[in-house]
């Protein structure tokens, strides 16, 4: 059997949730793949970061001809037109226009259908003139239903994928139920497979000196609360800053707030809130942090705080638990399903409640210890090897 895999996200230098999911699956596939099957990894650039070490039945296919934007829709489509695989696996919800007869894709969430105000409507394209031309073309072709902005691209790509995918994988029952409700498709076309936790990257570190070295690198002093994710509306990062401001004024404790991640849609509001509340010294934004440093930042944190509005899974929650860090998160979307009873769940719009949760975890050692114990036990349920074996079984059955 010839199995094609979109490895473009897995090969990204700065990985977040979807990219790590793609990377971990490919690395696990290498361990369990039937040697009688052939695997083709499609990417924009030469494989790196460990992906380049391939078994004999894995082949890298670098599709680097122009244009650079819309890689999936244009370059991957052209390649598949002349080089068909028996089945194509895409670890995100965007299928190429021309694809294999059998396709399996992962849909992580459909937040863009539920909360469009949390997503950017920035026009896609390399230059202003080209952007306007592309937008006009899309409007004409779709009879005005879609533009070439990021929100419409998500919607169009999802609907196209729903129509053409043989099997859809979701990382939670919540996301499966959302897809069935919004797109009215048969439940048997959707399979739920939970993500895993990379225990080689995320684990408890008892050596405080090693933690201190990394904290010094980013000019972070203890105690601090930690957030990891894109700094954007969807993640409710602005709400976290508001709650932290309440925490500082109400409880007068010495904690800082560390926001790890690249700026996203709505970052200006976050920055303005920090300035407005005189928190420039207490709110630290180091940008994207590599995983080898991230594990130390997690281990040094008083708590991991993730008050997101909408998640299809919420991988950082489990990674924090694996590091022995108490987790405060929201009671929305898939988060209660994934975090179980091991996290303190709050209403993401109730900033007083979130501030109170920050106070309790930082001032009550018994609460903190119990949260750590529950988290370390809970995270044992999630394995990348299990995720990969279940996913590969579905791909071969397709």
Please name the defining characteristics of this protein.
398 residues; alpha/beta; Rossmann fold; 2 domains; 7-stranded parallel sheet; 6-stranded parallel sheet; globular
Summarize the structure.
The protein is of the alpha/beta class and 398 residues long. The chain contains 15 helices and 13 strands.
Descriptive account of the structure:
With 398 residues, the protein is of the alpha/beta class. It folds into two domains: 2-196 and 384-397, Rossmann fold; 208-381, Rossmann fold. It has 15 helices and 13 strands. A seven-stranded parallel β-sheet has the order 3-2-1-4-5-6-7, sandwiched between helices. The chain has a six-stranded parallel β-sheet with strand order 10-9-8-11-12-13, sandwiched between helices. Strand 12, helix 12 (335-339) and strand 13 form a beta-alpha-beta unit. Helix 1 (17-32) crosses helix 15 (384-397) and helix 8 runs parallel beside helix 9 (267-276). The mean pLDDT is 91.
Terminal Cα span: 11 Å
Largest sheet geometry: 7 strands, parallel
CATH homologous superfamily designation of the largest domain: Glycogen Phosphorylase B
Task: Count every helix, treating DSSP H or I runs of 4 or more residues as helices.
Answer: 15
Topology overview:
Elements: E1 2-6, H1 17-32, E2 38-43, E3 58-62, H2 72-82, E4 87-90, E5 103-106, H3 111-114, H4 128-141, H5 150-164, E6 167-170, H6 173-183, E7 190-192, H7 208-217, E8 224-228, H8 237-251, E9 256-260, H9 267-276, E10 283-287, H10 291-300, E11 303-306, H11 315-322, E12 327-330, H12 335-339, E13 344-346, H13 351-363, H14 365-378, H15 384-397
Parallel strand pairs: 1-2, 1-4, 2-3, 4-5, 5-6, 6-7, 8-9, 8-11, 9-10, 11-12, 12-13
């Amino acid at each position: 059997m010839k199995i094609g895999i979109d490895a473009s996200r897995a090969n990204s230098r700065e990985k977040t949730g979807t990219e790590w999911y793609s990377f971990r699956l490919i690395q696990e596939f290498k361990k369990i793949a039937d040697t009688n099957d052939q695997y083709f990894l499609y990417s924009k650039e030469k494989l790196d970061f460990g992906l380049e070490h391939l078994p004999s039945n894995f082949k890298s296919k670098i599709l680097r001809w122009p244009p650079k934007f819309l890689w999936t829709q244009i370059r991957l489509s052209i390649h598949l037109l002349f080089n068909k695989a028996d089945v194509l696996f895409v670890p995100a919800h965007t299928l190429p226009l021309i694809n294999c007869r059998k396709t399996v894709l992962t849909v992580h969430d459909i937040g863009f259908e539920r909360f469009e105000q949390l997503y950017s409507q920035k026009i896609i394209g390399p230059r202003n003139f080209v952007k306007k031309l592309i937008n006009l073309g899309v409007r004409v072709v779709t009879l005005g239903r879609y533009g070439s902005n990021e929100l419409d691209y998500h919607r169009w790509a999802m609907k196209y994928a729903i129509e053409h995918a043989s099997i859809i994988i979701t990382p939670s029952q919540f996301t499966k139920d959302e897809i069935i409700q919004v797109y009215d498709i048969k439940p048997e076309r959707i399979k739920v497979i939970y993500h895993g936790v990379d225990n080689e990257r995320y684990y408890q570190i008892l050596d405080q000196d090693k933690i201190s070295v990394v904290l010094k690198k980013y000019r972070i002093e203890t105690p601090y609360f930690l957030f990891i994710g894109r700094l954007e509306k969807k993640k409710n990062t602005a709400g976290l800053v508001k709650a932290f401001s309440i925490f500082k004024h109400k409880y007068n404790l010495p904690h800082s707030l560390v926001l790890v991640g690249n700026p996203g849609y709505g970052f200006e509001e976050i920055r303005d809130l920090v300035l407005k509340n005189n928190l420039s010294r207490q709110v630290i934004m180091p940008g994207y942090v590599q995983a080898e440093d991230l594990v130390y930042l997690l281990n040094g944190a008083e708590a991991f705080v993730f008050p997101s509005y909408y998640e299809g899974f919420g991988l950082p929650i489990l990674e924090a638990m694996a590091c022995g860090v108490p987790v405060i998160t929201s009671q929305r979307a898939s988060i209660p399903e994934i975090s179980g009873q091991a996290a303190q769940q709050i209403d993401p719009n109730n900033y007083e409640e979130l501030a109170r949760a920050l106070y309790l975890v930082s001032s009550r050692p018994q609460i903190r210890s119990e949260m750590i114990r529950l988290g370390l036990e809970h995270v044992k349920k999630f394995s990348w090897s299990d995720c990969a074996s279940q996913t590969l079984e579905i791909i071969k059955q397709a």
